[in-house]
Amino acid sequence: MIISRWIFSGLLGLNLVTAPLTLAADAPIKIANPAPQWEPAGWGGGGFYYAAAFHPARDGVIYMGGDVAGVYKSEDHGRNWRLINNGLVDYGVFSLAVDKTNPETVYAATEGGLCKSADGGEHWQLLPQTEHKNLRITGEKGRSIRAIAVAPDNGNVVYAASPGGKVYKSSDSGQTWKIAYEKQNEATSAGLLRVQFGKVNADYFGGIWTNFAFPTGLKSEDCLGFGISFKGDKSLPQDCFLTLKTSTGISYRSKNLRGLFQDDTLRDVIFKAGDFAVDPDYAKKNLDKPAPATPDWATVNRLDFASSGPLPTTATVARIGKFFFAVTRSPEGQTGTADKPILVTVRDFAKDKSVQSYGNIRLGDSASGTVYSVAVAPKDSSLVLAATADSGLLLSEDAGQNWRALNTPKKASSAAVSASDSNIIYGSFFGDGIWKSSDKGKTWANLSGGLPKDFSVQEVAVSPVNALDVYAIGSVGWNGGFYLSNDGGVTWKSSSTLNADSIGNPTLPAESVKAPLSTPTNVAINPLNPKELFLSANWRPCLSEDGGLTWNERCRGADISCITDIRFSKGRTYVTAMDEGTLVSEDNGKSWRQLWPLKWQPDFSGHNWRVAVNEINGVDRIISTVSPWEQNHANRVSISSDGGKTFKATTAGLPDYIVRDNTMWGSGYARALAVDPNNANVVYLGMDGDAAAGKSGGGIFKSEDGGATWKQLPNQPASRRIYYGLAVDPTDSKRLYWGACGTNGGLHRSEDGGQTWKQVFANEQWIFNVMVAKDGTVYCPGQNLWRSTDHGATWQQLTKFNNGRAIVGLETDPRDPKTLWISTTTWDGSNNGAVYKTIDGGATWQDITGNLPYVKPQILRFNPATNELWCGFVSLNKLKQ
Fold first, then answer.
1. pLDDT digits over 726-775, tens only?
2. Phi first, then psi: what are they for 348, rounded to 5°?
3. pLDDT at 189
4. Which residues pair with 869 in a beta bridge?
5. Which DSSP symbol is given to 448?
6. CA-to-CA distance for 112 and 138, rounded, in angstroms?
7. If you average pLDDT over residues 382-406, what whole number do you get?
């Protein structure tokens, strides 16, 4: 199975500032009191779980971390789970550890920093200075396996493995830290920003951008050009461009700079005005707006440096020191010449970390500096091991003061020390297998003979009561493996199939009697019952009660689904989800049944974005939009005319290729869907992406046969960069609304069924959603919510947020036009979001976020039949109104 949750790493490239919540002084918002109590309504499984740890004193308590949803807790050996995110700063959790001397103390290494709980995970606090921008004591995907270790005899002593190549030690339970181990790498020592294009996710493009100001006191005529301190890696990307944007709204693009990467010496590269031309994308969309042929340097205030090509399979690396203007006169009055200009720095990445990234990008140190795991010997707390990406296993025998590299393979993933004999050390080394030392690391034996040749070992663990019982997990691609040895690693037995729980995890039901283990990430041993093991893994975490001989899926309530739509019909609830498909509940969310896909299908399995449900002759007709994972399969629509009993997929009339030009996430997705309220056979679909090179691109498509066939409208809005913003006016079926993002964004309206378009809202350029009430009132959400009662001719601002968030979730009560709900989000993994309600048409608002475990839902739907507000994105929840 292919999982692509990379979108939660801030890959949209949006010019939206992430900031703490601040509201305009006159914004009438109150916190609901008592706090609303949301009820979980989703299922478990179907996503990527990265971390696992047992409670050392309470039998049956297990903690688990996921890549997008936070921390889960079970108190019945994994049979049931609940999210425990109160105070957690980021929802990407990649390592967990529990303090044996203070059993209610738990540490969670998140992408936002290291969080600590003193009450069994019920409340969390971010530990000072652990954020990425400071010490980088973080948990990161692919770089953190067992990143936190607490000394077994002193809970004040905590070790942290940093993805940045350091081991930190705290002697006061995480309040302060010092470096215990550090290995400088080239990028760090040279004071350069390492920018890796490619081999990060499934995207085909990537870039960095930053805003800046033209130097004060200078004029455009003082400037000779714009420059960059650059060092390549001798690679040759397919395309690379530097785009400069101006305060007047014009974009200028450089010539193709792919050749820059072939020089691996650090040098200052200066581009003159003639090296830039008006950006073709800008010119195409602004034909009626004449622009100077070259940039006016005094107006340049933003740059974008982007590369594209076969980036999922290749990587190219740049090291950047600074961006600067080359001038003949400095702000201090010094003079230069054309041959020897003065370089006035506007961004110095040795000191300034304001650069933002999007697409297939990794910023900062390469994986070569990573410390994947840290471990403390159970019976000798002075013995500490670190598993590194480039120095193998490191050993300290004095509690982290001094370290020595052991004679092991150079890329180590984990280490485990026997509780009965601290001389016995096991190490895992990805493709180099498992090794063992019986003399505290002096000599090593390779124990990999019984493992598959191409098996990559993620973690090794040893029983706390028997040093001969050893467990190893790893994978070959997405295929996971668990191996156990009862003779100290001399022989290995595979146990990689589990009994699936089709009720707790209803996804892929045709595969769910016996299911294969997929990409396990942690193996945890119950210290109160060492025969009980737990695996965090992709799609189906599982538990063994017999030392790993048999496995049962354990994920009920471990909601990790990324919900993209919710609809109600005659007591049934339908949802679509990324990765998991389209599902239905007939008991208001107590249980769920998958409609599609029922098994892995390369041309159909992937992201389901929107669902439309209409009763036709007493039966639900269900339409959902689908983007397959496999990159050679384009967007399609799934249709069931018999309430979900059967379905068929259609691509008729839709692009037969992956649209890539001017898209939100590098590929065009069929994220928007709207059915004409007056004629259920007329359906509109929105897909982001421009036409290019003889290809028709995305945009708005129309079906007149209930979604079976489609036609691209001959005329398109000024921007096709859409998210969810598509709606049909119930009072006039010819009136359509299209919310667009970025250049030429805002809200666009058609009065003639899409034949012509007019921009009717331009106060904000990033419009992720749009809604038209049954009386024709239009709601347009940007960073604030706007309302029009005259079809977009005039607008009233309903909120006065100043928090850098985007409003995405939007819903009204069909029985009461003055009751609305909105949700706000940022495009990173942080907990910066909220849900609001108004009952007076937006005059006042109430914060109803309450106990919501994920505070940034993008989908809000109200069910009048049950008087419940449902919300979804990461996790699915509902609230009685």
1. 999 999 999 999 999 988 999 999 999 999 999 999 999 999 999 999 99
2. -115, 110
3. 45
4. 862, 879
5. G
6. 6
7. 97
Consecutive H or E run containing 672: strand 672-675
In the three-class reduction of DSSP (H, G, I as helix; E, B as strand; rest coil), residue 262 is classed as: helix
Non-local CB neighbours of 643 within 8 Å, separated by 6+ positions: 619, 620, 622
**Cα 110–114–120 angle (5° rounding)?**
90
CA 437/CA 441 separation, integer angstroms = 5
Per residue in 628-640, pLDDT tens?
A: 998 789 999 999 9
List the one residue out of 375, 381, 384 whose CA is nearest residue 101: 381
d(Cα 710, Cα 722) in Å, to the nearest integer? Answer: 18
The span from the CA of 300 to the CA of 643, in Å, is 56
For residue 812, what are its two tokens? Answer: 């009204």
b/e per residue, 363-398, with b = 16+ CB within 10 A?
bbbbbbbbbbbbbbbbebbebbbbbbbbbbbbbbbe
Q: Name the residue among 726, 787, 783 with its Cα closest to residue 761.
A: 787
Half-sphere CA count of 430, side-chain side, radius 13 A: 17
Structural tokens at position 262 = 């072939």
Report, in angstroms and rounded to the nearest whole number, the Rg of the chain calculated over CA atoms: 28
pLDDT of residue 428: 98
SS3 216: coil
3-state SS of 497-544 is EEECCCCCCCCCHHHCCEEECECEEEEEECCCCCCCEEEEEECCCEEE
pLDDT at 754: 96
**Global pTM?**
0.86
For residue 312, give every residue at least 6 positions away whose Cβ sits within 8 Å of its Cβ, in sequence order, or none: 198, 199, 201, 202, 203, 204, 360, 631
Two structure tokens written together for 854? 């994920």
Report the pLDDT value the prediction gives residue 217, as an integer from 0 to 100.
85
- CA gap 868, 860 in Å, rounded: 10
Cα-Cα-Cα-Cα dihedral of 683, 688, 693, 695, to 10°?
-20
Distance CA 86, CA 851 (A): 8
Of the candidates 771, 780, 773, 791, the residue with the CA atom closest to the CA atom of residue 747: 780
**Cis bond upstream, residue 714 (ω within 30):** no
Q: Return d(Cα 41, Cα 866) in angstroms, integer.
A: 14
Distance CA(265)–CA(280), nearest Å, equals 31
Distance CA 91, CA 68 (A): 5
Say if residues 524 and 53 touch (Cβ distance below 8 Å).
yes
Give the three-state DSSP class for 306.
Answer: strand
Burial code (b: 16+ CB inside 10 Å, e: under 16) for 812-830 equals bbeeeeebbbbbbbbbbbb
Nearest alpha carbon to residue 798 among 810, 786, 806:
786
Residue 465's CB: how many other CB atoms inside 10 A? 13
Residue listed under structure tokens 């070992």: 457
- How is residue 607 written in tokens? 């992201």
Are 520 and 484 contacting, i.e. CB atoms less than 8 angstroms apart?
A: no
pLDDT at residue 195 tops 50: yes
- Using an 8 Å Cβ cutoff, are 725 and 672 in contact? yes
Distance CA 41, CA 875 (A): 8
The pLDDT tens digits of the residues spanning 254-278 come to 999 999 999 989 999 999 999 999 9
> Mean pLDDT for the chain?
92
* Residue type, position 548, single letter: G
CA 137 to the chain's CA centroid:
19
In the chain, the N- to C-terminal Cα span, in Å, equals 39
Specify whether the CB–CB gap between 357 and 828 falls below 8 A: no
- d(CA 135, CA 163) in angstroms, rounded, equals 10
Run of H or E including 319: strand 316-327
Name which of 801, 690, 671 is nearest 743 in CA terms: 690
Q: Is the pLDDT of residue 18 over 60?
A: no
pLDDT in tens, 566-607: 999 999 999 999 999 999 999 999 999 999 999 999 999 999
pLDDT at residue 499, rounded to an integer: 96
